[in-house]
Amino acid sequence: MAKLYLGIDLGGTEIKLAVVDAYGNILEHASFQNSFNSVPKDVVGKIAHFSRKMKHFSAVSATGVGVAGDIDQQKGVVRFSPNLPKWKNTPLKKLLERELPGIISIDNDANAAAWGAYWLDAKGKARNLICVTLGTGVGGGIICDGKLYRGATGTAGEIGHIPLNPDGPRCNCGSFGCIERYVGAAHLSSEAKELLKTKKHSAILTLTGGNLDAITPYILAKAAENNDSTAINIWKTAGRRLGIVFAGVVNFFNPEMIVLAGGLSKAGKLILEPIKETVRERAFKKPASACKIVISKYTQKLGVVGAAFLSR
After folding, report:
1. H-type helices in 121-202, by residue range?
2. Do residues 78 and 20 touch, judged by C-beta distance below 8 A?
3. Can you give the pTM of this predicted structure?
4. Domains (ranges, CATH) in the chain?
5. Which residue, 18, 70, 181, 259, shows the most beta carbons closer than 10 Å to its own?
6. Rounded to the nearest 10 degrees, what angle do helices 229-253 and 217-225 cross at?
7. Per-residue b/e over 186-195, b at no fewer than 16 CB within 10 Å?
């Protein structure tokens, strides 16, 4: 029988599980809510409960888990997770080994997404790629010569904390002017709110009923589709800012692909085109022309499939 894998995307608000075959097909899946104050023992118990209910569970040969934060991949320890404050120095691998069969692998969620992008979007053919997750923050994972690259301390790929402006606003990481502070979901919404304080007419206001606090990236994308100039410029600016960082990445790493995933990637061409244009303008011509910048076709399942394949 072909090997099956269990992938777990362990987020701060939701935990997703999926049994995946060797081709990246999800055979069955489950999910349950998580909370900011959850404790590891309770969550591991729920993971075991939902896993055992899956009809393919007995055929699972290995399990992989993607968790946001600082992960010791060798020991399988969650050193720190910003979304799970009670998980500091949690020996997650050991806890899961008591409940689940086979090999257990733990990694950063952005690394899991990058591994998923390598197998699903690149089909294993682009051996050097970067996956950038665009959402509340900006995460990244690196595939180098067909393997996950984690760096000396396991924190490689933190593209969201490349400085765009050394004199910019303080980032949650403690530094200043990180790209995450300029293109994260919260920033796009707050930028729109500031711009609309002096405007009476905008598709954004129509879509939110005039409630500035209701502005979200989804609203901004809808408004841009209705040719709202404010929304279009917000996406264009975000794309150009990302493009500046990506141009540096192209020159430094020379990847074959940059794959965009996460909620903000759903803006499609609104953010993709200014990224591509800026990379063409600023990166060295040969590596820029060799690098495909795409939006993942599998953004909803990159995390669980990539996690499942960590032990592949």
Report:
1. 180-183, 185-196
2. no
3. 0.91
4. 4-117+301-311 (3.30.420.40), 125-296 (3.30.420.40)
5. 259
6. 110
7. ebbbebbeee
Tokens of 46: 């729920």
- Closest to 22 in 3D by CA, of 1, 48, 53: 1
According to DSSP, the β-strands at 129-134 and 103-108 are unpaired
pLDDT band at residue 2 under the 50/70/90 scheme: confident
Q: For residue 170, give both structure tokens.
A: 């303080």
pLDDT tens string 133-154: 998 889 999 999 999 999 998 8
Q: Residue 117's closest CA among 267, 308, 298, 271? A: 298
At 9 the three-state DSSP class reads strand
Phi, psi of 204 (to 5 degrees): -65, -45
E-strand stretches of 240-306? 257-261, 292-295
Rg (CA), the chain: 20
Q: Can you read off the two tokens belonging to residue 52?
A: 């055992």
d(CA 138, CA 255): 18
Coil, helix or strand at residue 293? strand
Q: How do 70-72 and 129-134 pair as beta strands?
A: unpaired
Residue 33, helix vs strand vs coil: strand
Helix 185-196 vs helix 217-225: crossing angle, to nearest 10: 60
For residues 221-238, give the mean pLDDT: 96
Residue 169 is classified by DSSP as P
The conformation of residue 212, written as its DSSP 8-state character, comes to G
Long-range (24+ apart) CB contacts under 8 A made by 203-212 are: 203/227, 203/228, 203/231, 204/228, 204/230, 204/231
The rounded distance, in Å, linking the Cα atoms of 142 and 115 is: 8
pLDDT tens-digit series, residues 244-284: 999 999 999 999 999 999 999 999 999 999 999 999 999 99
CA–CA dist 169, 182 (Å, integer): 9
